[in-house]
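In the current project phase, work has continued on tokenised descriptions of protein folds. One protein thus recorded appears below exactly as we store it.

——
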Amino acid sequence: MLLLACTFLTTCFMDDICKLGEYRCYVFETNHS
């Protein structure tokens, strides 16, 4: 079975200045019997 997990990552500096993050998706393959 394939699972898709997406996260939105943000990059912050000095707790004040945040850049626009990037949206990443990961595909996991699970083998459960």
In short: The mean pLDDT is 79. Strands lie at 2-13, 17-29. The CA atoms of residues 4 and 27 lie 5 Å apart. The two ends are 11 Å apart (CA to CA).
